[in-house]
Amino acid sequence: MSTARKKRMQMSAVGDEARVAAVQSYQLLDAPRPIVLDELTRLASSVFETSMSTVTLVGPDRQWFAGSTGMPSGGGPLNTSFCGVVVDRRVPLIVKDALTHPVYRTWENVMGVPNIRFYAGVPLVDEDGFLLGTMCVLDDRPREAGDRQLDLLHTMAGQATGHLSAIRNRMLLAEVGDELSRAISREEDFVATVSHELRTPVTTIQGYLELLVDNEELAPYRKMIEPIQRNGERLVRMVDHLLAGTRPAGTPLPLLRAQTDLVTVAEAAMAACRAQATQREVALRLEIAGDGGPFPVPGDFTRLSQAAEHLVRNAVLFSPSGSAVRIRVSENGLDVVDHGAGIPADELPHVIERFYRGRFAREQAVPGVGLGLSIAQRILRAHDGELTVMSDGSGKGTTARMTVIS
Known about the structure:
By secondary structure, this protein is α+β, with helices and mostly antiparallel strands. It is built from twelve helices and 13 strands. The protein has helices spanning 3-11, 17-24, 35-48, 82-89, 108-111, 147-175, 179-214, 222-245, 262-279, 301-317, 359-363, 372-382; strands at residues 52-58, 62-69, 75-77, 93-95, 118-125, 131-139, 258-261, 283-288, 296-299, 324-330, 333-337, 386-390, 399-403. Strands 3-2-1-6-5-4 form a six-stranded antiparallel β-sheet, with helices on both faces. It is globular and about 65 Å long. 40% of the residues are buried.
């Protein structure tokens, strides 16, 4: 890091004019949230198994969620902002139980909705050294956060700042007349608006349902609340799939290429699918080739984790109760192996097509809209990789292989 950059970081504070100008240059305050940042927070929430996560931009007098999962609002004042504390102190902040803290326990967002108990946030520093805000995960229950989790949160913060930079660059190019950038910006605006109108209300409902599930006084009604919660999660996934799977064919998939560990990608995918696997009584087993990694590849961590998640989720949905799904990671990719019914030979050439659902999926009412493999393939092709699905249709299962060139 250059001396000038270090100096800028040392001088940075919530009200610093240069820092505030840097935040405003991204033009995201009060704007629709970019879908890629919502996807990153959804991934973070899954990996850390928390109910909430945000990519937070901190302005001079308030915070704004540029990416959000599980939060009932789009931002808030700085006088009760954990993210504001991170920006002011310029260091990570971990609060294991806000109710036991002498200051935080009196905050409105601790005493009331969204009932924050746990907070872990790291600084969001852009390529020019300006501290924009935080990448954080939050929960309504006390939790712990180890060094490995903090390292992963730093990785996600790097992804967030990379995406923010790419978004700003595309806006600048669009302003000077670059047609491709205008096309991507138009699509991102459309997707962000649709996501806001469809996904945000459902995730807000989910947040309140989670509070109801945790309320002991409502224990007699839990059997009615939990199915609503599960179906809400299913609806959110369906909206995500439709938004990701119906992109115009000629529109490039925006990527943030950086050194990404395939083992971490596999762990993130497994974390995102763990609740569903537990519900269906399917075990998830991670197998790492050689000396246990890491296996670095040039790729977008968020996108590759999404691709792997689609493969793992598919394997879980098609696996019988009591079986296991194996995720095998090697130097150039990973295999997801299940022991389900397999795929008939006549269906195998079509399974990656958009909206394709085989006979077994239809007859057994397997949840989904037939977009998961198509989305995974598009992500991998954008990385110059490939998705291969193998099965002999004899009831011995299916292997889905994602290959990423290192």
